Every structure is written in structure tokens, then in C-alpha cells.
Amino acid sequence: MKKQIGKTNALYPSLTTILGTTINGRPNFITIAHVGIMNHGDPQYLSFGVSKSHFSNQGIIENKVFSVNIPSRDLVVETDYFGIMTGKSTDKSSVLETFCTEGYEAAPMLKRCPVSMICKLARTIDFETHDVFIGEIVATCADEEVLANNKIDISKVNPLLFDMSSIQYWSLGEPVAGAWNAGKVLKKK
Fold first, then answer.
1. Residue 2 lies inside a defined structural domain of this protein
2. What is the 3-state secondary structure (H, E, C) of 110-163?
3. Do residues 119 and 136 make contact, with C-beta atoms less than 8 angstroms apart?
4. What are the tens digits of pLDDT across the range 79-111?
5. What is the mean pLDDT of the chain?
6. In angstroms, rounded to a whole number, what is the distance separating the alpha carbons of residues 80 and 42?
7. Of 138, 140, 143, 159, whose Cβ has the fewest other Cβ atoms within 10 Å?
């Protein structure tokens, strides 16, 4: 029997990302796990829910561009640091080596993250406590080691997942079944 547990958000675990922006000429990074894939067409959009109290919002709104870095599990310490320290009083720009793509210097990326994306700010949705940033993906960079047939192999990325219930970072398990394939056994013949 199911038990009602209130208004609990049960959509965890979620992918852990590190957003990069520039504020007052300095790179700044923040860990965000409240992310969403808006679509898979062209253009492609992603969404990020960020508390209004965060320093990074200023850079995203002013520059209208930001990076989305996907850390692997070996970056758990740095990833957590980016989330627990505020850029208002801490210079996080030297924690990991950064790089930029020409024309998007205000969207610093992290070299040690196996996958990084550049997003143009398409829209900001203003909620009482949070801003939701919707970014259009304009470029994706991936380490060659995580590619298979020029596509990102998620098992090689080994991304961090975040679970709010346990307040823990998790990693991926094994594949279960092929998407758009496993359910075919239930099709009527």
C-alpha cells in the first residue's frame, strides 16, 4: 500500500552540473542539480532553477551567456565546494583550470569536466524564491576519451547524480534495457 508523504519532490536523483559565468571580470562557478531538458530539437534548450540569493545569477543575467559543465565522480570534492561556497566572498576561479571559446569569454568552462556546454540565455522566469534560467545550447565540448562514434558515452563520463532525500552524491549503475525497444515485447501481435 502506498503512503502519502506530502508535497515531496520525487524526481531525484538528478544530474549534477556546474554553471560557469563571469562577474566583475572574474570566472565564477556554482553547482546546480535542479536542471531540466526542455526539448531535443533544434534549437535545444535546458533549464536551471537557481535560488535568487546566489551570486551567479548576476553574471548570467548581465552576460546573457553561461557554461554548463558536467563533472565526473572524481570531481566530487570540487563540485561540492562550488556549491557550498559563495562567489560573493570566495574567489572560486582557481579551484580548477578554466578555458573559454572565442565569442563566449563570459562563459568559462572547466577543463577537468569531461563535457561542457555553452548556453545563451533565452529566457529568465522570475519566481518568488528562484530564477529559472532557460539556456539555448550553442556549443558542446567533450573530451575525446568520453566519446564513442562521436557521441557522448555516459558510462565514460561517469557523472555525479544528486539525491535530495539522502543529501548524497551518487554515480551511475549499469544499463537496464534499450530505450524505445524494451517495451516492444508488449505490443500486440
1. no
2. ECCCCEEEEEEEEEEEECCCEEEEEEEEEEEEECHHHEECCEECHHHHCECEEE
3. yes
4. 999 999 999 999 999 999 999 999 999 999 999
5. 96
6. 32
7. 140
Domain that holds residue 140: 14-186
Distance CA 104, CA 112 (A): 19
Q: What is the CATH number of the domain that holds 131?
A: 2.30.110.10
What is the grid cell recorded at 126? 522570475
User: Does 5 reside within a domain?
Assistant: no
The total of structural domains in the chain comes to: 1
User: Locate cell 533544434: which residue?
Assistant: 42
Whether 73 is covered by a domain: the verdict is yes
Q: What angle do CA 175, 177, 181 make, to 5 degrees?
A: 145
Residues 17 and 28: their CA atoms lie apart, in Å, by 14
d(CA 30, CA 84): 8
d(CA 21, CA 109): 9
> Where does the pLDDT of residue 189 fall: very low under 50, low under 70, confident under 90, or very high at 90 and above?
low
Q: 35 burial class (0-12, 13-18, 19+ CB within 10 angstroms)? A: middle
Q: What is the pLDDT of residue 111?
A: 98
Whether residue 9 lies inside any domain: the answer is no
Question: What is residue 188's predicted lDDT score, i.e. its pLDDT?
Answer: 74
